[in-house]
Specification:
- The chain has a single domain (5-181, 201-379), classed as Growth Hormone, Chain: A, CATH 1.20.1250.
- Helices cover 78% and strands 0% of the residues.
- The protein contains 15 helices and no strands.
- It has helices at residues 5-20, 23-34, 38-66, 69-88, 93-124, 130-155, 162-178, 204-234, 240-258, 262-265, 269-289, 297-322, 328-339, 345-353, 358-379.
- The longest helix has 32 residues, at 93-124.
- The radius of gyration is 20 Å and the shape is globular.
Amino acid sequence: MTWSADRRLAVLLLAVATGTNVPTPLLLVYREQLAMTDASVTALFGVYALGLMLALAVAGRAADRFGRRRVVLPAAICACATSGLFILATDSELLLYVVRFLQGAASGTVFSVGSAWLVETASRRGNPAGPRTAAVAMTGGFAIGPVFAGLIGEWGPWPLVLPYLLHVVILLVALLISWSVAESLVRPTRAPDAPATGAFRPGARRTGLLVVAPLAVCVYAFPASTVAAVPVLVGFPVAPVALTGLMAGLALGAGALAAPLQGRLGPRTAPVAAACGVVGFGGTALAAAVPALLLVVVPASVVLGAGGGLALASGISRLPALASEGRLGTVSAAFYATAYLGFGFPLMITTLAERVSVAPVLAVLAGLCAVLAVQQERARL
């Protein structure tokens, strides 16, 4: 069987996404081995997001100028290298921060430009499902990484080595599969004296800022909160590393399963995604407030994961309509830069929880999601 070019790119996105969450359940191992505080552990998500956003500041424009291939493939190789560098960071908190930053920069470049590459490639062969394919590939990878890393971290050999080695192998195979995919960028023709066009179509910038951007934050705020902040603050009585990995896998797997529903939900995808935040944060708040209801955190986390997947699919599907011809890379980078702000949520939740109990913090987030759901319903892109 011969895979189409867009499916081969989906394999690359999935492989890179798998690596980004390999460290997630291992944070509990790092915390014990390096005597890190809760704030230091969740700050690793903030460092990752910083690397993502700094890379996106140049990745989109570079891809629109030099092409998708010349940006994505080197970035994927760098993502592979960072997984190897994690092995060297097992005894150094500072090096752990540096490698996590580099991982964010490499993976963010692949996600933003790679998804544009996939969407354009699929569109060229008449396949309108490119945005959903990209969303499923990334959310699926996000789900796979913490599951095998959590199981190895709890019961396997070399818990801070073997998960990264496995990811290096996975990503090398994905690079071989996707290496021959052709460039998709078609540069628009214009007169030499014509003024340069902006990244957004006329009138689209306002829509992107007021409607798409608020939902974009939910893409990673939802799963990052349930993967990083909730396990640290709520706590699991037994096998915490494995349970954190499995919960992350359930939440992010729900995102992968929910993303294809964008085809059926259409304009309702955005308000449904925000409503998932209401249920998810509300449920985790209840679990944090009432110890007897601790297990409620599991379905609540699944709902949050589903909301993140829906938000991602909804956002990616809207980007081609917002972008000027040949500028999808820049607009995609702007979308992901906004989405990656959500990685700061675990640190925000942890910091606030040091001053007040975590339950009210989560309840406030549920209320904000309710406001967002109403706003997205009224916008009805």
